[in-house]
Each structure stands twice: as structure tokens, then as C-alpha cells.
Amino acid sequence: MTTGLCVIFNHPFKAQIPLLRELYASRFEKILFLHPLDRSAEAADVHVAYGGGFTFDAMIVSARDKILRSFADCDVVLFAHNDLLLTPKISGEKFSGQYEVGAYTILTAGVASISSALNTWAWGFRAAMNWQSPRFVFAGGAEAARSFLPSREEAQARARASGLPDTTVLLPASEAELAKLPPIFRGIHDYIFTKRAADGSLEPIDLGYPLFTGYSDFFAIPVAMLAAWFDVLGPLAAMQLFAEVAIPTAHVLTAKRMMSLRDLGRSGQMLWGGERGTIDNIKWVADRFDQGDVFIHPMKFNTFSDSYLAQLKEIYRGRP
After folding, report:
1. Residue 3: enclosing H or E segment and its boundaries?
2. Using one digit for the tens of pLDDT, what is the confidence trace for 158-184?
3. Count: domains in the chain
């Protein structure tokens, strides 16, 4: 089975495209770059889409036809962001076997329900508001989008088949927690939670539909499932829930089998805050790949010196 690579840019960094071509061309016969906004970046292997940032789900959907045409001769498409560096041990010819991506298996870095106390995740406010009240002036506005998703019963069956919760329950914040929130978040919280229990406390809300989240800078989808996946991702992206809600939810509602890197005993490096400085040590990068990491994120290529990039290219030379 042959795997093609679709590289997604959140932001317009067309100067990075030649570097990524050089790193990945010997590993993937088919590569497509999705680049936002800058029409001057367009090329045979570069599709310019309008979107980006935390709406990259909509950017992927807008490139639906281009993606389906570009990878028609492949069996699997691996989606990876431009600032996510794939291991040099990866190969388009070997990927599906190494990562157990069969005809109906979607591979992710992990998926979980968004059920939680609303105040624990800022993006939860956006997802809850746009799901519950799409016509609200600050919501997505795509009021008909939900009617084009799988039925509640079908969605719940898919979730259960993947061992995931079949609905989404959001819990209100305590008064102490509410006091810490910026006014706009407090306003959304009060708009969503309106029912009170006998003791006066706010009641949780059940959205009545399973919604999920997960790291979405890396995932792989069989070509045989792509059209169906787009049919689910499209309405979710139109609702502007947040890319890392729409994409994982589309995975769950489409896949006949879900597989995570953890299921395979594999992992990637997702670095946040002060951890990101570790990437400045090129030896650490090489060591992580030698120890089996599938990817390293984030690699801000525009900030690296010419010497660093030369060493990075050397890491990639000669590896199958």
C-alpha cells in the first residue's frame, strides 16, 4: 500500500516549502502542500486555500477536490503540519504496514471526549456555543450544518464502537472558578448554563451528541474513506467548533477502526512552553528519532540558522 503526504500550513510560510520538499521527496512519491492565502506560493504540488490558524479544518475541506485528485493513486494519505517534523525513518511505501493503517482504519495521535468542566478548556467555550446556538451573533452561523451530520444514533454507535463516550456532558464552573474567567467567557458560561437544580446549583448540559478532541497535526486516512470523511468534516468545519474538535470528531464518526500511536506503542514529541527550547539542540532531535519518536513538534524552521538546517538535512540523508 502506498501512502501520500499532505502537508498543512497554518500560516503563510512559502519559503519553507523547498526545505520540506527536500526532506520528504525521497520518502514520499506523492506530496501536496496546503498553503494559506498567498497565491504566489501556488505550484503543481502547492494548493493555495483560504483559511489557516485554528480554522485549518476549513482549509482542508476547501481543498477536498484537489486532495482527492492528487492522491487517487495512493492507498493512504498522511496529513502532517509544516512545523511537525516526521521521522526520517518514515516511508510512503512502508507507512501503512508500519502503522497498521488498513483500508478502513484511521490513525491518530489520540482522541478523547470533550466532556469536562467548561472552564478547563478555552476552546470548549467556542465548541459549546457554536454547537448549541449557531445563530448567535458570536457563533459560527451555519445553522443547517448539524442536519448534514450522521444521526445521533449513528454517531453514538460509532463512538461506542471505538470505545468512546456516546454523548458530551459539560459541567458548569464553580463560583470561585467563574470569578477567574475573563468577562466574555463568563458571559458565554451564563448563556449556556441556565437550568438550576433544587439546591440552586447549575445543572450540567448534555449536548446530546458525541464530540471529541485530540492533537490534529498528525493523522492518516485511507483513500477509500476520504470522501466519507470529508462529508462529515465539512459540516463540522462550517460550524467553526475548532479544528481540534472538528477533525477528531470526523475521525470517530467515519472510521470503522480507530488506531492511535499509543495503541502501536509509538509516540511523538509535542512540546509546549519552555520545553520548546529543547529543539534548538540538533543532537536531541537526532536522538529522539533514533529512539523511535514518530515526529517532533513544533519545528519553527524560519527561526533556525543555516548551520542548524544543514545538520537537519544531514540527519535525513541515507535513512530509508
Report:
1. strand 3-8
2. 999 999 999 999 999 988 998 998 999
3. 2
